[in-house]
Every structure is written in C-alpha cells, then in structure tokens.
Amino acid sequence: MERASCHIIYVNRNVSEDGLIHRTSGDTASDWATDEARQVVQPLLDAFGDVHVCATGGGCLTKLFELQEGSMLDLKPTLVLLDTPKDDSIPDRRRRLSSPSPSCNSSSENVDIHTPDEDLYGLGLLQKIITEAHLR
Questions:
Q1: Which residue stretches belong to region Disordered (predicted)?
Q2: In this predicted model, what pLDDT tens digit does every residue of 60-106 receive, in sequence order?
C-alpha cells in the first residue's frame, strides 16, 4: 500500500523528546519514554512511514510553522494529531468576557492571549492552531 503524501505531527506528553521518527529506523525500547507512547506511535509509523512527534504545544507549533513554510512550494499537506485528555475542555470565553466581575480589569483578557505555547495541550492547543491558521 502506498503511503500518504503528507506531513504527520503527533503531540503526546508521553513522548520523551521532539523529533522525526522513521518507520524503518531500528527503534529500541530506550528510544521511547513509555510503552504507551510506543503503542500509540507505532500504528502511525505503520500507516504514514514518518511521524514528527512533539511532547509540548510549543514544539508542535514550531514544527507546524516550519513544515508550513516548506509546504508552500511542494503543496504537501500537514496532518496534526493531538492527544486530548479525557477531562479536557475549552473555557467558554464569551461567557467570561460578557459578564466580568466588578473587580476584574481588562488585563485579565490578555491571560489567554499570552499563554506560553509550552503550556498548550489538547483542546487549548487545537484552539491556538485554528487561530494561527486564520491569521496566516
């Protein structure tokens, strides 16, 4: 079966370090942070061949923008797969912004905007990727 012609980025905190993993590389157990990480990444390697793995939201965004610049020339799409914790949710910003408490000032709105990329994960990271895509 022919492999998909696209870039794959997989974000999972269980991965020990960011990098490109090749399906044909002689991966040993020491290359993986946990058996769980290996079990999750291996099917992606089988399906796509090469997978960029990232342990943090910042690593994901950096790799995504790097691949996006190169993809402008070769028109190769990028697929981002995010690990999302079961209890993850996106805060309802409309509710928070429409009814601020009297003691709140406008600087509280900037907290979400300036969240360090390293702290982004799951649905929060997805929201950041969507925002960045609209800005580009």
A1: 84-112
A2: 999 999 998 876 777 888 999 998 878 877 655 544 444 455 554 54
Q: 51 forms bridges with which residues in the sheet?
A: 21
Specify if 56 maps to a domain.
Answer: yes
Q: Does residue 45 form part of some domain?
A: yes
Give the global pTM.
0.70
Question: Is the CB of residue 5 less than 8 Å from the CB of residue 75?
Answer: no
51: enclosing H helix or E strand: strand 50-54
End-to-end CA distance of the chain: 34
Q: How many domains does the chain have?
A: 1
Is the residue at 2 inside a domain?
no
Q: Which amino acid is at 109?
A: E
Q: Are 93 and 113 in contact (CB under 8 A)?
A: no
* Largest interatomic CA distance in the chain: 61
